[in-house]
């Protein structure tokens, strides 16, 4: 397995800061804005975004975790049953501006499923998508992120791995491009 570093610790921190600045420009006081991290891996980025926004604006923005497992179009087509993650949203999204947050944007299918799952918590006034890494040329649906940390040219046999330092065995934040072995 070959892997290449896409974003190391200092660049990743700068990228998260830039994404937060873009959110601040579009949401001024965050009075009517909520953040939803997509399970399983988008929640780590969502927590970082919330922390940085609190530091920059002193706004305590509501954060929830959304699992879209049962809304996926390939849910029943898998050989092994998929284990769902926790959905933790203790607020309504009715008439709110929602920022969906995920670590890697690949085909768009997870985001489509998340849009369906989110409607169980109300109808938002607006939905935006923030991703740390967007894989170019891989979209299957006409869904495009509003905020992108880094765009990467990839082929089908590659994957993007985001590591956060609080995870077991990880010393610092990194984003890797991994070539899968044949």
Automatic annotation (TrEMBL):
Domain Phosphoribosyltransferase stretches: 7-158
SUPFAM superfamilies registered for this protein in UniProt: PRTase-like
Signal sequence segment: none
Protein name, UniProt field: PyrR protein
UniProt cross-references to Pfam families, sorted A to Z: Pribosyltran
PANTHER family registered for this protein in UniProt: BIFUNCTIONAL PROTEIN PYRR (PTHR11608)
InterPro entries per UniProt: PRTase-like, PRTase_dom, PyrR_bifunctional
Native organism: Roseivirga spongicola
């Amino acid at each position: 397995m070959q892997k290449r570093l896409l974003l190391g610790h200092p660049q990743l921190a700068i990228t998260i800061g830039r994404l937060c600045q873009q959110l601040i420009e579009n949401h001024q006081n965050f009075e009517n804005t909520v953040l939803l991290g997509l399970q399983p891996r988008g929640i780590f980025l969502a927590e970082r975004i919330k922390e940085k926004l609190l530091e920059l604006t002193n706004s305590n923005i509501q954060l929830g975790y959304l699992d879209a497992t049962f809304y996926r179009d390939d849910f029943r087509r898998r050989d092994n049953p998929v284990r769902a993650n926790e959905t933790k949203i203790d607020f309504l999204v009715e008439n709110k501006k929602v920022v969906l947050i995920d670590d890697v944007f690949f085909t768009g299918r997870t985001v489509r499923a998340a849009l369906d799952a989110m409607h169980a918590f109300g109808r938002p006034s607006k939905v935006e998508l923030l991703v740390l890494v967007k894989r170019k040329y891989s979209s299957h649906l006409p869904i495009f992120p509003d905020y992108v940390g880094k765009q990467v040219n990839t082929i089908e046999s590659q994957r993007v791995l985001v590591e956060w330092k609080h995870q077991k065995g990880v010393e610092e934040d990194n984003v890797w491009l991994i070539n899968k072995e044949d």
